[in-house]
Amino acid sequence: MACPLKRVIIDGKINNLFKHVREEIQKVIFPTKIQIKQAFIAVFIVVTVISIFLALVDMLMSAIVSTAVGS
User: Fold this and answer.
1) What are the sequence ranges of the domains in the chain?
2) What's the predicted TM-score (pTM) here?
């Protein structure tokens, strides 16, 4: 049979853990809907610009290699 004292120590640690978790969650500053929307738009624009740039570089390199190989 488990020792009752051991159970109290375990319960105390778990309660202490949840107390600390609650304290830390209250310190978190969650972004607002506007901040999320702005971040999404910024990321979307950057990814789009980089994708277009890489597509252009790929087409340029493809043309150069095709010309060099002579196909």
Assistant:
1) 1-29, 31-71
2) 0.60
